[in-house]
């Protein structure tokens, strides 16, 4: 049975086998969580990302964690939807991000994964709706991952994720 928890903190310092990067299609780094992960993992992450790019929205691809502190061994990159009102497939694409990340985690043999709040930053997905989609998708996707950490960088995100998890 998979345990899902909400954690406030730095995704690059988690006690997990893999972390998820809310990436752009180029997988070469950007702002927000993407920039923080690239900074912490070092320049080899951008090189590895470029070698497997592009990554389509809703898909996921993995690279080594490079300079990230152990036990993090893998970075799973996923490209979420840009919010354009919700009627252009954004919810389905976001759900696909979470499903594909779990599939990739299973392929890697990862038993613990930390997820950021995908698409809720510069991509503009409403945080409450994104949190509900994340929890519903993670709970309904069959996986061998034993522990999922939903990461919150700040208190408002922690509250939103905690409420979504409690509501089921």
Automatic annotation (TrEMBL):
InterPro entries: Macro_dom (IPR002589), Macro_dom-like (IPR043472). Pfam families: Macro. Residues 1-168 form the Macro domain. This is O-acetyl-ADP-ribose deacetylase. The lineage of its organism: Bacteria, Bacillati, Actinomycetota, Actinomycetes, Kitasatosporales.
